[in-house]
């Protein structure tokens, strides 16, 4: 086995640029490698080393303008490009495969550079007209102007490349044993999100070509309600309609946009610099009535103080929509940019909405976690159930790590002896217990605890599981948890990942071990199934099945 400290010499240069710290460190993020540009395997070419070569022309300088060709999509949706004259690798946001363009170097990072696209010379392959007017500047769905089949192909290639170069599984191994499955596309490419969060701000952000539209006199005409410009916490693109959220949610957004700037109503958007203002965020959540199947919408106003009389005009306006069954007010007095309030008030209707998933009913409160794409979550959870290989005789124990509100564990509980779920967020555990009660499930136990800080006592409060489900957040699993799983030696692990880079790393540890820590892997990767949960975005979900060797 190649030690991680020597592994970088075997990788393509665009991945080799990352430092792989020792996994022996005890702090949670320290053994993780940067993930900003992990992507398809394109090695950095070497400069011409003949005596007459001009070495400085090979390495571009900051501010330099160059002709670039985008060859693939990298992790997080950036274009992996080459300088046409030298082949030097440059990462560029919003560049698409096949696109030849003029770019300006903005930053140099070791063996690669970053650039901003200035002018397209040749259009990309498989380009389409994006239906959303905000695509050129909004960071919500960067690849909307790329044909959907090309999007999912690029995502599948990213996962394969990471599994090979970070996970250290050979391409021959993946193909010979049929481990890597074709990506599962999403049947619904628009209006699939059941949750959107918009921000209020004192100034609409406008691109240079539209700055003349700004009201020089200031005032409420310039107020913004929308989404953040990528990379900026204080710049907001005003959004009147988002093609990712449901139609009922868009109706609510339009109604609020229509009136909230009226000076007579007295609303002030929160200013993140001066920390003055009332309206902070608008969160819209969509669900379905369990009995009728009709849509339900929750409107959550996040404000800096509790002023129900001031909000009454907005409450009256949006409550007129029959789909709006819940209007909440989260009061967040902190200067942080979070939508979770210290206090929560119900201004209209009920305090939660409902949704069904895999035949179960779930209550969704203002701040509870729920899969953002309900339609594709059905597909994802069915794949998880199939990977788990439940016998169905009620004899098996399931350990559900990072269980959230219990959605995965509860869908399995009907066929097993008992489910034990662990999650760090107290509110999520409370919701999980409520969802178990709501569905009459009594063989599920949910415990609040930080899986990044487990000790030698973890595992003593539940019997040895037959199946482990692990669904960590983007940083993946801590080394403490990986050691625990390797010692536990459960027959099967189903690893569900929202980040293919950390997924590849954790699969490497579980299957190949960690030489520096004298830890041996004891699992075999049986299958890896990419799933496109969020069309037009760079996000990728993976369902992996591991079996004990």
Automatic annotation (TrEMBL):
Active site: 498 (nucleophile)
Source species, domain of life: Eukaryota
Start and end residues of each TRAM domain: 59-119
Annotated keywords: Methyltransferase, S-adenosyl-L-methionine, Transferase
S-adenosyl-L-methionine keyword on record: yes
Pfam families from the UniProt entry: tRNA_U5-meth_tr
SUPFAM superfamilies, A to Z: Nucleic acid-binding proteins (SSF50249), S-adenosyl-L-methionine-dependent methyltransferases (SSF53335)
Binding site for S-adenosyl-L-methionine: 371, 402, 423, 471
Family annotation (InterPro entries): MeTrfase_TrmA_CS, NA-bd_OB-fold, SAM-dependent_MTases_sf, TRAM_dom, U5_MeTrfase_fam
GO biological process, one term: RNA methylation
Alphabetized GO MF terms: RNA methyltransferase activity; S-adenosylmethionine-dependent methyltransferase activity
PANTHER family in the cross-refs: RNA M5U METHYLTRANSFERASE, TRNA (URACIL(54)-C(5))-METHYLTRANSFERASE
Classification via NCBIfam families: rumA (TIGR00479)
Similarity remark: Belongs to the class I-like SAM-binding methyltransferase superfamily. RNA M5U methyltransferase family.
The protein, known as: TRAM domain-containing protein
Organism: Vicia faba
Lineage, uppermost ranks: Eukaryota, Viridiplantae, Streptophyta, Embryophyta, Tracheophyta
């Amino acid at each position: 086995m190649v030690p991680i400290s020597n592994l970088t010499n075997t990788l393509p240069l665009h991945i080799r640029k990352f430092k792989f710290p020792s996994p022996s460190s005890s702090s949670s993020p320290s053994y993780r490698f940067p993930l900003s540009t992990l992507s398809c395997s394109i090695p950095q070419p070497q400069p011409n080393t003949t005596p007459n070569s001009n070495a400085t022309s090979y390495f571009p300088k900051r501010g330099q303008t160059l002709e670039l060709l985008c060859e693939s999509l990298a992790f997080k949706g950036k274009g992996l490009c080459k300088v046409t004259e030298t082949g030097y690798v440059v990462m560029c946001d919003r560049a698409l495969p096949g696109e030849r363009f003029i770019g300006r170097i903005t930053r140099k990072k070791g063996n690669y550079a970053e650039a901003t696209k200035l002018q397209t010379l040749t259009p990309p392959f498989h380009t389409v007209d994006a239906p959303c007017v905000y695509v050129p500047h909004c960071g919500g769905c960067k690849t909307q102007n790329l044909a959907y089949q090309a999007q999912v192909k690029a995502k599948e290639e990213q996962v394969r490349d990471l599994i090979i170069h970070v996970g250290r599984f050979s391409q021959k191994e993946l193909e010979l044993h049929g481990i890597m499955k074709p990506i599962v596309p999403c049947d619904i490419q628009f209006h699939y999100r059941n949750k959107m969060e918009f921000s209020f701000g004192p100034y609409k952000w406008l691109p240079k070509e539209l700055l003349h539209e700004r009201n020089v006199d200031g005032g409420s005409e310039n107020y913004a309600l929308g989404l953040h410009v990528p990379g900026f916490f204080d710049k907001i693109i005003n959004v009147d309609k988002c093609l990712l959220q449901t139609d009922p949610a868009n109706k609510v957004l339009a109604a609020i946009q229509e009136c909230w700037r009226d000076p007579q109503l007295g609303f002030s958007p929160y200013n993140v610099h001066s920390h003055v203002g009332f309206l902070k965020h608008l969160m819209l959540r969509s669900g379905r009535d369990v009995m009728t199947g009709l849509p339900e919408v929750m409107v959550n106003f996040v404000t800096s103080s509790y002023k129900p009389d001031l909000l009454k005009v907005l409450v009256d306006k949006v409550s007129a929509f029959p789909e709006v069954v819940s209007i909440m007010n989260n009061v967040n007095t902190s200067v942080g940019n979070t939508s979770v309030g210290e206090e929560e008030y119900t201004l209209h209707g009920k305090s939660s909405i409902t949704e069904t998933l895999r035949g179960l009913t779930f209550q969704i409160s203002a701040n509870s976690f729920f899969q953002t794409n309900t339609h594709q979550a059905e597909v994802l959870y069915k794949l998880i159930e199939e990977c788990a290989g439940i016998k169905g005789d009620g004899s098996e124990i399931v350990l559900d790590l990072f269980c959230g509100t219990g959605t995965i564990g509860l869908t399995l509980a009907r066929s097993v002896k008992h489910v034990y779920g662990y999650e760090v967020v107290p509110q999520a555990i409370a919701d999980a217990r409520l969802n178990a009660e709501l569905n009459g499930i009594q063989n599920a136990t949910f415990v609040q605890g930080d899986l990044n800080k487990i000790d030698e006592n973890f595992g003593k409060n539940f019997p040895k599981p037959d199946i482990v489900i692990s669904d960590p957040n983007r940083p993946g699993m801590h080394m403490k948890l990986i050691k625990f799983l390797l010692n536990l030696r459960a027959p099967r692990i189903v690893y569900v990942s929202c980040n293919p880079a950390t997924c590849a790393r954790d699969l490497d540890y579980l299957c190949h071990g960690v030489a520096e820590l004298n830890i041996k892997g004891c699992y075999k990767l049986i299958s890896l199934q990419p799933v496109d949960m969020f069309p037009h975005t760079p996000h990728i979900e993976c369902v992996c099945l591991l079996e004990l060797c």
